[in-house]
Write a structure and sequence with these properties.
The chain is built from three helices and no strands. By secondary structure, it is an all-alpha fold.
Length: 94
């Protein structure tokens, strides 16, 4: 039963499916980029829509942008700490 992970690794290497050394870094970069861009883009449209609806320009827009900034910071910190924990765990296993 213990040989199954070894066989899986051998099959991946034989089929050329082994992850490149740079793939985890690119995935982390994309995840962190989404945490920056997505809340801001959503806040732009939501803030403009709310300002038009309630005629409170620019206060609802600025509030949405501020909230998006806070959400981005929390998301970045959360993902970064998770990645650091994974890195520390892999270093301990070596």
């Amino acid at each position: 039963m213990d040989s199954q992970p070894d066989n899986l690794e051998n099959n991946k290497k034989a089929n050329g499916l082994e992850a490149a050394w740079w793939q985890p870094a690119i995935i982390m970069f994309l995840r962190l980029s989404v945490w920056i861009a997505a809340p801001i883009i959503i806040a732009l449209y939501l803030g403009k829509w709310l300002d038009k609806k309630f005629d409170m320009a620019p206060w609802l827009f600025l509030s949405c942008i501020g909230l998006a900034f806070i959400i981005s910071i929390f998301g970045l910190v959360k993902n970064t700490t998770e990645e650091l924990k994974k890195l520390e765990k892999s270093e301990k296993n070596k």
